[in-house]
Automatic annotation (TrEMBL):
It comes from the Bacteria. It comes from Streptomyces graminofaciens. Residues 1-26 are annotated as: Disordered. Residues 8-21 have a biased composition (Basic and acidic residues). This is Winged helix DNA-binding domain-containing protein. It holds the Pfam family AlkZ-like. InterPro entries: AlkZ-like (IPR009351). Coiled coil: none annotated.
Length: 426
């Protein structure tokens, strides 16, 4: 694997230029007389560099611009949101202050459940689309699951839960913002516990408050507000969600898929099904609704939005980036060979498939990074091919950039990869 790197070392490898041009443009024959354009790895990396706000000239001015470009920022780990924004800002010095402003003061960004039962941060104007296209289906499953587990675990029935829910929402409206503990002072039934997974290795006691607030969040009735601690804290207050219009499900799915494909296209049907968490029939219906165009990829057929078939020329300069665990770029596609070599995955993913912090060079993952207990940011190349001295200098510059805006903050990923644990020394 090579040594931990805090600075740079000499490397005689030739610098890789993939991702700096659209140099692999071509066409692919499909059936009788039909021709579709082939988009190769170099152009896919070029699109990633520009549209994911990672190349130097493509970086954004503020967190709203980042979220708008990315469609969704992973929010399961609170720190990921801030680290993902900071990696994409032209001036990251006010990353924390500006992201907190957007989330908790101006409410231009909203943290909510979305695709694959996962918490994301979305631009506020997109929340009705996500709610109708995805969250409602998630919410129905969550509520059914809660009622089933309550019944098996010896808790009261659905009518009882409905009373608790209405009382909780009324208490939250009176308080404005509150933690689950504070809400339980007003509605003591939230403290009710029930046995989950009796006889299983994961047997334990669940509290009504934890499960019910999750359901209400997925249903769009409550939202996460400012945390109790710093920006790395996962102990959130809750607030009543503002009203928003309801969309037709099919129209909302078409709108969401079109937004994502404009940023992340080309993508395969498998990529789209994985990212959305929808049925394949929903994906195909949405592709047809937006008039998506088929293109050729190394993996087979991919899709772009109409008008996006033309070649994309990449950034004029090489670029490096340090992305956090669960970053939306690293987790953006199910089929990742074009930017993440398979041999690197055991070091960079945890046992559940969550990616840890990654080091990027010209559109591909080349290593990982971590922060030690003393605050030092360290990194290691796992694939030095084509990086050379230019790449290592650029990566070291990104390390200093990250260290600068973190200040005294200490960040430990919620989902830890083997490499991150090793580099962090824990």
């Amino acid at each position: 694997m090579g040594p931990i790197v805090s600075g740079v070392r000499e490397d005689a490898s030739q610098s890789e230029r993939d991702g700096r041009s659209g140099g692999d443009v071509g066409v692919e024959a499909v059936g009788m007389g039909e021709v579709r354009r082939y988009i190769g790895v170099a152009e896919r990396r070029a699109r990633l560099a520009l549209r994911q706000r990672l190349a130097g000239d493509a970086r954004a001015a503020g967190p709203e611009e980042v979220a708008e470009s990315m469609v969704a920022l992973h929010g399961s780990d609170p720190a990921t949101v801030f680290l993902a924004v900071g990696a994409r800002l032209a001036d990251p010095g006010r990353t924390v202050a500006e992201t907190e402003r957007a989330l908790y003061e101006d409410r231009t960004l909203v943290r909510m459940h979305g695709m694959r039962h996962t918490v994301f941060v979305f631009p506020t104007e997109l929340t009705p689309v996500v709610h109708s296209s995805t969250s409602l289906a998630v919410a129905a499953k969550e509520r059914a699951s809660l009622l089933k587990h309550m019944e098996v675990g010896g808790a009261p029935d659905a009518a009882w839960l409905k009373e608790v829910e209405e009382s909780t929402l009324a208490a939250l409206a009176r308080r404005g913002q509150a933690t689950a503990v504070e809400l339980a002072e007003d509605e003591p039934r939230l403290r009710r516990r029930f046995l989950y997974g009796a006889g299983k290795s994961y047997e334990g006691l669940h509290t009504v408050s934890t499960r019910l607030l999750k359901v209400l969040g997925a249903e769009g009735k409550v939202v996460r507000a400012r945390p109790l601690g710093s920006w790395t804290s996962s102990q959130y207050r809750w607030a009543v969600a503002p009203p928003h219009p309801e969309w037709d499900v099919a129209e909302a799915q078409a709108a969401l898929l079109g937004r994502w494909l404009a940023v992340c296209g080309p993508a395969t049907e498998a990529d789209l099904k994985w990212w959305t968490g929808w049925r394949v029939s929903d994906v195909r219906r949405a592709l047809a609704a937006i008039g998506a165009r088929a293109v050729g990829l190394d993996e087979g057929t991919g899709y772009v939005v109409a008008g996006d078939e033309e070649p994309v020329v990449g950034p004029g300069e090489s670029w490096a980036a340090l992305l956090p665990g669960l970053d939306p770029t690293a987790m953006g596609w199910q089929q990742r060979d074009w930017y993440l070599p398979a041999e690197l995955r055991p070091s960079l993913f945890d046992y559940s498939g969550n990616i840890g912090p990654t080091v990027w060079w010209n559109g591909r993952v080349v290593g990982g990074w971590a922060q030690r207990a003393d605050g030092e940011v360290v990194w290691r190349l796992l694939d030095a091919k084509g990086v050379g001295r230019e790449g290592e200098v650029a990566i070291a510059s990104e390390v200093e950039r990250l260290r600068g805006w973190l200040g005294g903050a200490r960040v430990t990923p919620r989902f830890r990869s083997p490499l991150e644990r090793e580099l962090a020394g824990s």
